[in-house]
DNA sequence: GAGGAGATCGTCT
DNA sequence: GACGATCTCCTCT
């Protein structure tokens, strides 16, 4: 029995497109992590597109290395990297095999397995009422490093895993959720190509991360 | 609630 | 040896 109702696993073709198209299309979809105990799920409310070798802010800008090889591979594969000495960030590869491109998952709205995700992040859930507090829920997966922590994502464990294969414990599904309005702003936390409008998020969603939650003037 | 600085380490030059 | 697609804590208002 699926606690999430009827869902459709996204296929490789979904990711075999321009990262801008994929980043926008991923808004509102669900990321699922299957654990031995339960199903962790979060709705994607914020993404950023990284365009490949022509995008100065992308890891793939300087060409293929051992670290970023996934971005140059087939679409729909998890790219996980370690940043600032403390955090992992989760991406998915886009574009055909041989062409670089990816989408960074920046924020999730917790949907299922909330207690387990909170525990993974050391966010305290004392009573059921805490599950209703936005201030508490935001600490779970509002931000790239937090999101990875909540799902237990690490480079050792998840880099190169396929999002589009039922074999793996990490996948992205469509549960039919309709997003009312998607806003686009410049990306966050980068210096190069900082003004390109490549960040996508659900307008008014409380779980979107970062200071810029409205489009620049 | 907002702003600033420190933590901490893999990757690339 | 420098830096980074971040988070948390602390201080100030």
Descriptive overview:
- The protein is an alpha+beta fold.
- It has one domain (8-176): 3-methyladenine DNA Glycosylase, Chain A (Roll).
- Helices cover 18% and strands 26% of the residues.
- The protein is built from six helices and nine strands; from the N terminus they run βααβββββααααβββ.
- The longest helix is centred in the first third of the chain and has 8 residues, at 19-26.
- The N and C termini lie far apart (47 Å).
- The mean pLDDT is 92.
- The protein binds a DNA duplex (13 and 13 nucleotides) through residues 48, 50, 57-59, 62, 65-67, 81-87, 89, 91, 104, 106, 143-146, 155, 187-191, 211.
Brief rundown of the structure:
With about 220 residues, this protein is an alpha+beta fold.
Name a few traits of the molecule.
217 residues; alpha+beta; DNA-binding; 26% strand; 3-methyladenine DNA Glycosylase, Chain A
Gross morphology? globular
In the CATH hierarchy, what is the architecture at level 2?
Answer: Roll
Distance between the termini: 47 Å
Q: At the third CATH level, what is the topology name?
A: 3-methyladenine DNA Glycosylase, Chain A
Q: Specify Rg, calculated over alpha carbons.
A: 16 Å
**Count of individual beta strands:** 9
> How many domains?
1
What amount of the residues lies in strands? 25-35%
Structural class: alpha+beta
Look at the structure and give the CATH class.
Alpha Beta
Q: Which percent range fits the helix content?
A: 10-25%
Order of H and E elements: EHHEEEEEHHHHEEE
List low-pLDDT spans: none
- The number of distinct helices, counting runs of at least 4 residues, comes to 6
């Amino acid at each position: 029995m699926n606690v999430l109702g009827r869902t459709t696993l996204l296929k490789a073709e979904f990711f075999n497109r321009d990262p801008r198209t994929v980043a926008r299309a991923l808004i509102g979809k669900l990321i699922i992590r299957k654990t031995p105990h339960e199903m962790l799920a979060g709705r994607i409310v914020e993404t950023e597109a990284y365009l490949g070798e022509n995008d100065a802010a992308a890891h793939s800008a300087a060409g293929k290395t051992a670290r970023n090889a996934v971005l140059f591979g087939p679409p729909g594969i998890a790219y996980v990297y370690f940043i600032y000495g403390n955090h992992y960030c989760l991406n998915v590869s886009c574009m055909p095999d041989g062409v670089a491109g990816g989408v960074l998952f920046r924020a999730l709205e917790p949907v299922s397995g909330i207690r387990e995700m909170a525990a993974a992040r050391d966010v305290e859930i004392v009573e059921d009422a805490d599950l209703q507090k936005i201030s508490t829920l935001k600490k779970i997966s509002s931000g790239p490093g937090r999101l990875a922590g909540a799902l237990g994502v690490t480079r050792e464990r998840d880099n190169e895993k396929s999002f589009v294969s039922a074999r793996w414990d990490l996948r992205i599904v469509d549960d039919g959720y309709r997003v009312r309005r998607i806003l686009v702003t410049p990306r966050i936390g980068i210096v190069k190509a900082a003004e390109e409008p490549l960040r996508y998020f659900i307008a008014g969603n409380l779980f979107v991360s970062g200071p810029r939650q409205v489009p620049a003037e």
